[in-house]
Design a protein that fits this description.
The chain is an alpha/beta fold. It has two domains: 2-164, Rossmann fold (3-Layer(aba) Sandwich), CATH 3.40.50.720; 170-286, N-(1-d-carboxylethyl)-l-norvaline Dehydrogenase, domain 2 (Orthogonal Bundle), CATH 1.10.1040.10. It has helices at 10-21, 39-43, 52-57, 69-77, 82-85, 100-112, 126-131, 142-147, 149-153, 167-195, 200-208, 215-226, 236-253, 258-275, 283-286, and strands at 2-6, 26-30, 47-49, 61-64, 91-94, 116-119, 134-139, 156-163. Strands 3-2-1-4-5-6 form a six-stranded parallel β-sheet, sandwiched between helices. A two-stranded parallel ribbon has the order 7-8. Strand 1 (2-6), helix 1 and strand 2 form a beta-alpha-beta unit. Helix 10 runs parallel beside helix 12, helix 10 (167-195) crosses helix 13 (236-253) and helix 13 (236-253) runs antiparallel to helix 14 (258-275). The relative contact order is 0.10.
Amino acid sequence: MKIGMIGVGLMGHGIARNVMRRGGFSLGYFDHPGNQPTDELDGLGATAYDSLSDLAGASDVIILCVTGSPQVEGILTGAGGVIAGLKPGAVVIDCSTSLPASTVKMAEAVKAAGGEFVDAPMTRTAQFAHEGKLNLLVGGDAAVVEKVSSVLASFTDEVKHVGEVSAGHRLKLLHNYVSVGFMSLLAEAAAQSADAGIDPQSFVDVLANGGGASVALDRLSPFIVSGDREALPFAISNALKDFDYYRQMSAQAGAQVEIADGVYGALSKVVEKGAGDAYVPELVQHFRKG
């Protein structure tokens, strides 16, 4: 089975290396300026393609790991895109964080071209991707998910089939809303604590031994205590994008968004100041006075 990889960024590089190392699959990837260095992949025998349609034509499974719905739509349906070269029966796996409505539309386009589609967004960080220990939330037909199960297993700890096409992306947006929402609330509290001169370790310890104990605290506490942002290398601009997707999804569902709107506004102010490339733990600094 030949795998095509589109999006060899922080997450995609980890997926690609484990598809080859752990899965033993042959890999081709789309050569793009946004890729991480591909020396390791090239050394393992990967083939670079400068054409999306050519990569699709050489692949039985195509994995997408890009920023979001506009990129996925362009890659699949644009001129010279994946659908233009798709092999009959090939499976497209979208590991991006995308809007459910767009996912349904893209699945229909792939199906009309003779392929299959599953959405499989991730819920862990780049370090887990590198180690081949991602968790996936998968939406799609059970038979199609089973067809690509060995590919998914090559870069994951857990693969959870959560429903039909788009269910994975819906749950991912719900997950990120809760996760980033928790961390934004915690960052605001940590900023006020720092401005008041409270010892940062004492702040962390009080939360850890009480109602603030959480994965959010685990990820932010290195920055709160010592300024180390690397526990969560996730850009604030990407968090804002996910919140925007969540609000769009909620609007389509007629769901309440008052709390989401508040967090979105706080993140927007940071990005508007030019700090979109900062990591989420750095919200602690950006939420401080002055």
